[in-house]
Amino acid sequence: MSEAVETQEQDAEVGGIAADRLRSIIERVERLEEERKALGEDIKDIFAEAKSAGFEVKVIRQIIRIRKQEPAEVEEQETLLDLYRRALGM
């Protein structure tokens, strides 16, 4: 077997691991992490824009969290919150 063929076979599989497949997976994750970082920076910029427009960022975050929930779950939480407030005289 020629040295070039042996090197290709070693690159393709090392210790029972498909090196090309592993490299592909790692590179895909790295690209997605970079995209996530960029998206996080975009979201931060949007919150800064909201704040400069006079909106309360904490409340916006809370609304976003609520919108992710099921309506029945939101209603239950609001009912309990109201009950607890009344119990505390608020």
Polypeptide structure, described:
With 90 residues, this protein is mostly helical. The protein has two domains: 1-55; 56-90. It has helices at 3-12, 19-52, 57-67, 71-87; strands at residues 13-14, 17-18. The longest helix is centred in the middle third of the chain and has 34 residues, at 19-52. The protein is elongated, with a radius of gyration of 26 Å.
Features:
coiled coil; 90 residues; UPF0335 protein MON41_07610; 4 helices; GapR-like; GapR-like_DNA-bd
Which consecutive residue ranges, at least 5 long each, have pLDDT under 50? none
Strand order of the largest sheet: 1-2
Residues in helix, %: over 70%
**Count the strands?**
2
Give a quick rundown of the structure:
This protein has helices spanning 3-12, 19-52, 57-67, 71-87; strands at 13-14, 17-18. With 90 residues, the protein is mostly helical.
What's the helix and strand layout?
Layout: H1 3-12, E1 13-14, E2 17-18, H2 19-52, H3 57-67, H4 71-87
Antiparallel strand pairs: 1-2
Keywords: Coiled coil
Domain GapR-like DNA-binding: 18-89
Coiled coil: 22-49
